[in-house]
Write a structure and sequence with these properties.
Elements lengths: L36 H10 L11 H7 L3 E6 L4 E5 L1 H7 L8 H4 L1 H5 L3 H10 L3 E7 L5 E10 L5 E9 L1 H28 L11 E7 L9 E10 L2 E9 L3 H19 L5 H15 L5 E9 L4 E7 L4 E4 L5 E4 L3 E2 L12 E4 L4 E6 L11 H13 L5 H11 L10 E8 L5 H4 L2 E7 L5 H15 L4 H21 L4 E7 L3 E8 L19 H8 L2 E6 L5 E8 L4
Parallel strand pairs: 10-13
Antiparallel strand pairs: 1-2, 1-5, 3-4, 4-5, 6-16, 7-8, 8-9, 9-10, 10-14, 11-12, 11-15, 15-16, 17-18, 18-19, 19-21, 20-21
Length: about 550
């Protein structure tokens, strides 16, 4: 192969017109400068002439470069040349053979379609960091070359990038281990098994971001408060990695502790706001905390910068709970407030994080509207709805953000199932006849519900003590409510005084102070809370024997 006939456009080199100009200095100008003519002549005699680029022998240049070089020509890519580095890497090659037979290593790397493309287009192409059969990684640049009128060939120039590839692989492995640690921490901090309220059916799902995204701080929880009420919470800690997951875990633990105080949603968020500032002043989180009371048929909630709850009624109409919404947790200086939205039997509510509805180059409201449309046609169990909403949002294993979804249903019960969920209430007017009237009412209701004798008697005793406590320490209006579910009997007394009772040890000579202690002893659980309109509710519950 005559290389002087080839014009190779090697990467990083250019032809310079100045290299082809005559650089000989005329004798009459050698003495015109600041250097004497004799000295100039002496320097000219000692310095060897610098060859122009076109005068360099191409083969010598290519043989000396450390990169791998191969030259093929013609439509069937006949091998014209390989340099010494190529021979050292892959062995001797037969010139004139077709490249597919002469250079099988390039075929294994899938380089021949690229050669065809370069030959057709006349434009160079690069294939980055491919691992060759010799175990090393190369970046291949294929450059078109011409040989007069005889045709077009391709110069293959391979740079060894093994060190870079190995460093990148170590970095990816390290990032993978960090992500695995964060995902493990995240999942361990999320509830391993959701609590199952009597009156609600719930399901949740969590999808970490794809392999290119560090895990975030999405979280959710379901907390049974007692007295038939249930707290539901979902949140999103801003940021990524182990730090976000750790902050999430602290907030979730705090929510469970604050929930035991049975505070209104806005007061829980107020406490969380202060805690988030103490955990990390630079870390903020969004959160929505909601409470479902089956007696009210509503979802009372408060939001700290989180996305609106969506509620679908039994007819398929979706309502968005937009207000009130305060700033995210950790910002401080904001008084949160509570709102409510109807959750009647047959309704489904969805709490979610922004990964489900937020997309690049798309308005957030469009994502929420798409979720509303998907929810309006979603039926089935909460888990089925969870999966359907995730699919409709296009969430895949490579999704670029974490996704958490919490679905709850207030089922419309009919027939035999409805018989296991009953309510009864009595307004207490006060006076000496209130306690006997409450006992008689409770006895009649529990008898009609066909409770066994021992549970009937314990229910009447608990009713008597709670009513007596309310008559002595509370103010009108007073109300007695009995509720049964498929798992428990709940007795609740409300009055207009907001002073919460506490269990205390009564001295032998005390004539009072034993009512709450008796209730706590005989009941499976008891508690008290302040009601939104002022006043309080004191309740106890008994676990029903399994049939």
């Amino acid at each position: 192969m005559n290389f002087t006939r080839w014009s190779a456009r090697l990467p990083g080199t250019q032809r310079r017109a100045a290299a082809r100009t005559d650089t000989t200095v005329s004798p009459d100008r050698r003495s015109d400068g600041s250097v004497p003519a004799a000295r100039a002549e002496q320097l000219t005699d000692e310095a060897p002439p610098v060859p122009a680029v076109d005068d360099l022998p191409v083969r010598d240049v290519l043989d000396r470069v450390p990169a791998l070089v191969a030259l093929v020509h013609g439509p069937d890519h006949r091998l014209a040349y390989v340099n010494d580095a190529y021979v050292a890497a892959f062995g001797m090659r037969d010139l004139g053979e077709r490249a597919r037979e002469a250079l099988p290593e390039l075929d294994e790397l899938g380089l021949f379609p690229l050669l065809d493309q370069v030959q057709r287009s006349g434009r160079p192409r690069t294939l980055k960091s491919r691992k060759a059969p010799d175990g090393r990684s190369y970046t291949f640049t294929c450059t078109p070359v011409t040989e007069g009128d005889s045709g077009r060939g391709v110069l293959v120039f391979a740079t060894d990038v093994t060190d870079h590839a190995e460093a990148a692989a170590r970095l990816r492995a390290s990032e993978g281990r960090q992500r695995e640690t964060a995902v493990t921490l995240q999942r361990s901090l999320l509830p391993q098994e959701l609590e199952e309220p009597d009156d609600l059916r719930v399901a949740a799902t969590y999808h970490p971001g794809g392999t290119e995204a560090a895990v975030g701080g999405d979280w959710y929880d379901v907390i049974t408060l007692g007295g038939g009420r249930t707290a539901l919470v979902i949140g999103d800690v801003m940021g990524r990695g182990v730090r976000a997951a750790a902050v999430m875990g602290q907030l979730r633990t705090a929510v469970r502790a604050y929930a035991r105080l049975d505070l209104p949603p806005h007061e829980v968020l107020q406490l969380l706001d202060g805690l988030a500032t103490e955990i990390d002043a630079n870390q903020i989180a969004t959160c929505v905390y909601a409470i479902h009371d089956p007696n009210e048929g509503r979802l009372v909630y408060a939001s700290a910068g989180h996305l609106p709850i969506l509620v679908r009624d039994e007819n398929g109409t979706v309502q968005r709970a937009d207000e009130p919404t305060g700033p995210p947790l950790g910002t401080g200086g904001w008084m949160h407030s509570s709102g409510s939205i109807a959750l009647t039997p047959g309704s489904t509510a969805v709490l979610y994080t922004d990964g489900l509805v937020e997309r690049r180059n798309e308005d957030l409201d469009e994502g929420i509207a798409a979720l509303e449309r998907a929810l309006s046609g979603a039926t089935g169990t909460p888990q089925v709805i969870c999966d359907r909403l995730v699919r409709s949002a296009g969430v895949t294993p490579d999704h670029d953000d974490d996704v958490a979804v919490l679905v709850l249903q207030h089922p419309a019960r009919k027939g035999a199932e409805a018989e296991r969920f009953r309510n009864a209430a009595l307004e207490l007017l006060g006076g000496v006849e209130a306690a006997p009237r409450a006992r008689a009412f409770a006895s009649g209701v529990l008898t009609s519900w066909r409770f066994p004798t021992d549970l009937h008697d314990l229910g009447v005793l608990a009713t008597s003590e709670l009513v007596a406590n309310s008559l002595q320490h509370g103010t009108p209006p007073m109300r007695l409510r009995l509720r049964r579910t498929d798992r428990r009997l709940i007795i609740e007394v409300t009055d207009g005084d907001d002073h919460l009772p506490r269990r205390r040890r009564a001295e032998p000579g005390d004539e009072s102070g034993r009512g709450i202690a008796i209730v706590a002893t005989i009941a499976s659980n008891w508690g008290s809370r302040r009601t939104p309109g002022g006043g309080k509710a004191v309740w106890c519950e008994f676990v029903l024997p399994k049939p």
